[in-house]
Design brief:
Elements (H helix, E strand, L loop, with lengths): L4 E7 L5 H9 L2 E8 L2 E9 H8 L8 E6 L2 E12 L6 E8 L5 E11 L5 H4 L4 E4 L3 E7 L7 E4 L8 E3 L10 E2 L7 E6 L6 H28 L1
Parallel strand pairs: 1-4, 2-6, 7-10
Antiparallel strand pairs: 1-3, 2-3, 4-5, 5-6, 7-9, 8-13, 9-12, 11-13
Length: 221
């Protein structure tokens, strides 16, 4: 189960681009808490504290207790906007949730025991991951950190579907209308005659360019 994260926040008195820029210059990140049939609440967070929590790797699928002026608000992070240049967080949306709420979260998938998969270890097959995350409907108090999928015994040509995965108690896939694929084990890539001919053509062209450049240098000398 994911650990509960904690963030301290202050109420945001002013809104708008100018106010948000001023907050960021002071090392703060504007945010909003909404949902649970209450009015949206503008807040701002310490940028360093936020980055520390983002670096846990499970910020988006953990319950986050936001302390706003001594009041604890139970939330989930629904969106984090990042600066396209600095890659620093510039805004966060939080969703209020009740303690016993059922929520939909994207949980990372991890694969174990690749060395015990004959299709990978002996046949040289490649694990083709179709879904790196699985959306689950789960109780907020029991969100898993990850979904582990055991590859033991898997052969080339095998497909792993959601029905093959043992989910935590009380968790269900958000997609219910099909047995979707999470990963497949595909044959190793073998160069074709066309690939080899193209490689040879490229090498020949590069060699000709190098000879032309060398000849030009000699002529100038």
């Amino acid at each position: 189960m994911s650990d509960t994260l904690h963030l301290s926040a202050e109420t945001r008195d002013r809104v708008g681009k100018g106010a948000s820029r001023a907050l960021r210059r002071d090392g703060r990140v504007p945010a909003v808490i909404y949902g649970n049939k209450q009015d949206p609440e503008g807040i701002h967070l310490n940028a360093r504290e936020l980055m520390k929590q983002l670096m846990t790797g499970h910020f988006m699928n953990s319950v986050i207790m936001v302390d706003v002026g001594g009041k604890q608000v139970r939330t989930l992070a629904k969106d984090v906007a990042f600066d396209v240049v600095t890659d620093q967080p510039i805004h966060v949306d939080f969703l209020r949730i009740a303690k016993d709420a059922t929520v939909t979260v994207a949980v990372p998938v991890v694969f174990t025991n690749e060395d015990d998969a004959p299709g990978i270890k002996r046949a040289g097959g490649v694990l083709n991951v179709v879904r790196h995350e699985i959306e689950l409907v789960v109780e907020a108090s029991n969100i898993p950190t990850e979904i582990a999928i055991d590859l033991t015994g898997r052969e080339v040509g095998d497909s792993i579907h959601i029905s093959d995965v043992t989910l935590p108690n009380g968790a269900e896939p958000a997609v219910e209308d099909r047995d979707f694929t999470i990963a497949t084990i595909v044959p190793p890539t073998v160069p074709t005659a066309a690939d080899e001919a193209l490689d040879a053509e490229v090498a020949e062209a590069q060699s000709a360019e190098a000879e032309d450049a060398e000849g030009g240098d000699k002529a100038e000398g």
